[in-house]
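Progress report, Aim 2. The chain analyzed during this reporting quarter is listed below.
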Amino acid sequence: SLLSEGVLVCLPSGYEHSGEKRYPTLYIHDGKDAIVRGRYDRLLDRLATQGTAPPVVAVFVAAPSDPTTRLSAFSHVPDPAFPEVKARGAEYADLLFSTVLPQVERRYRTNGTRAMLGIDLAGPWSFHVVWNDTEKRFTRAASQSGRFGWGSAMGSMLETSPYMTLLKRDASPPIAKLAVDWSDGDQYQTQVHDALKAAWNK
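Predicted structure tokens for the chain:
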């Protein structure tokens, strides 16, 4: 199953003593790596304490541990460089909307404001989901080191990739905020950032 690795929900500090207060939600893919390697749970708590970001109900959705299955979960289109990867991104999104999101909102005090963060291939996957969701359930999207060149005839041809083509389409006003992060030492990610900036400025 694409959700076999589980889902971990981290509640903001003071949640249990906050009465009827409701919180925005942040869904994070690949959630296990975000906690184990990125320590996002601690980061979110620190940002809330500093007042830099609001306290959130953070939903860490773990990706499949098998590398090929993981890429399949986060790809909406095939990539010529990875013929073994079958695109199951739409199926994964369906599981998010039909299973994870309803359970989170039944169990926890959420306020209907939702954001999604994707790491690596989950970055463009998240943007694709937010862009194409006809119900506009997410108003914020973020990507960390996203592989926006996935699916192009050549991985470096960002302008021709399906994800870049998608993001050239105006999806506002429902989307309130976007964020793209990458490593300063990663030249490819710098090219991704520049290409996204050019697309959104048109």
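DSSP finds seven helices and six strands in the chain. The chain has a mean pLDDT of 88. These observations will guide the mutagenesis work planned for the next reporting period.
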